[in-house]
Amino acid sequence: MKKCTIDPDHSVAAFAIRHMGIAMVRGMFHKLSGCIYFDADDVSRSTVEAEIEVGSLSTGIKKRDEHVLSDEMLDAAKYPTITFRSTRVVPGGTGKATVHGDLTIHGVKKPVALEAEHFGPVKSPWGGEISVGFTATTRLNRQDFGVNWGNDILEHGGMVAGKDVEITLDVEADLEP
Questions:
Q1: 7 secondary structure, DSSP code
Q2: 81, 51 Cβ separation under 8 angstroms
Q3: Mean pLDDT computed over 24-41
Q4: What is the CA radius of gyration of the chain?
Q5: pLDDT score of 108
Q6: Is 75 helix (H, G, I), strand (E, B) or coil?
Q7: What is the pLDDT of residues 150-176, one digit of tens each?
Q8: Does an H or E element contain 120, and which?
Q9: Which of 18, 72, 93, 173 has its CB 3.0 to 4.6 Å from that of 162, i.e. a possible disulfide?
Q10: Tally of helices (H runs) and strands (E runs) in the chain
Q11: Lowest mean pLDDT among 36-50, 132-146, 160-174
Q12: Alpha helices by DSSP H, 10-152
């Protein structure tokens, strides 16, 4: 079992949500931290603990970012972090696994499953560091986490903000010596 520390300079949590039933709005959280205890020989023994700083949100539109961070949506002042703690890892073939765990958003903790893939380990060309990469995806219902702004049904049947949110985590982590 190897301890891997999430490299905040090379990791991001991205999301996409349908706006008014017609276009996908994408955004990222740029500040992630945490540890992955990774067992390449028996992936089922691996664990993950990660934290995302909600205030690091960027959708590319300042006014939209301010609204998403406001108390109408994520309420970053009251809930400054999103956390994930794995409860079980199920191997899914070479380099793949399903990572089950508890995700806490907006003060609400719910079980989720992330479809994950790992890459590496590789040795850094600039020194002795060895890094491993992970990509994980899931889809969740924002209403399950108490994020309820945007539920108005529009004339064509879409919602101002869609219920389903696609999540993608791209993480680089450094192996502890």
A1: -
A2: yes
A3: 94
A4: 17
A5: 97
A6: coil
A7: 665 656 666 667 788 999 999 999 988
A8: strand 108-123
A9: 18
A10: 1, 11
A11: 160-174
A12: 62-69
- Statement: residue 149 has pLDDT above 80: no
DSSP at 11: -
Using CA atoms in the order 100, 163, 105, 93, what is the torsion angle rounded to 10 degrees? Answer: 20
Per the prediction, the chain carries an average pLDDT of 91
User: Do the Cβ atoms of 88 and 112 come closer than 8 Å?
Assistant: no
Beta strands in 130-160 (DSSP E): 130-141
Angle at 32 between CA 110 and CA 144, to 5 degrees: 20
- Distance, in Å, from the CA atom of 73 to the CA atom of 75, rounded to the nearest integer, reads 6
Classified as helix, coil or strand, 64 is: helix
Q: How far apart are CA 94 and CA 104, in angstroms?
A: 29
Predicted local confidence at residue 127, as pLDDT:
75
